[in-house]
Amino acid sequence: MTQNEFTQWLNLAKALNLIVSSHKINGTMYIYTSAGQPKPLDNFITDYPLERLQAMVARQLS
């Protein structure tokens, strides 16, 4: 994932209220869900790839 794709992914995930923040701990990036649970970024991206987030936003807009 390029920096541009990551930025797009992060913005979409926040807009969809899937995440509220991110934080690096011991070299690993963690995403905090809207429930306040930390999850490793790699795991979260596997569950919510960029294409899925784009489709979710498209459905909300239609």
Features:
3 strands; 62 residues; 26% strand; 3 helices; alpha+beta; three-stranded antiparallel sheet
Biggest beta sheet summary: 3 strands, antiparallel
What share of the residues does DSSP label as strand, in percent?
25-35%
- Output the helix-strand order: HEEEHH
Strand element count: 3
Structural class by sheet pairing and helices: alpha+beta
Q: What is the terminal separation in angstroms?
A: 27 Å
Cα Rg: 12 Å
Mean pLDDT: 93
Structural summary, described in words:
With 62 residues, this protein is an alpha+beta fold. It has 3 helices and 3 strands; from the N terminus they run H-E-E-E-H-H. The protein has helices at residues 3-15, 41-47, 50-61, and strands at 19-25, 28-33, 38-40. A 3-stranded antiparallel sheet has the order 1-2-3. A hairpin with a 4-residue loop joins strand 2 (28-33) and strand 3. Helix 1 crosses helix 3. It is globular. The termini are far apart.
Short description:
52% of the residues lie in helices and 26% in strands. It has 62 residues and is an alpha+beta fold.
List the helices and strands and how they pair.
Layout: H1 3-15, E1 19-25, E2 28-33, E3 38-40, H2 41-47, H3 50-61
Antiparallel strand pairs: 1-2, 2-3
Helix pairs in contact: 1-3
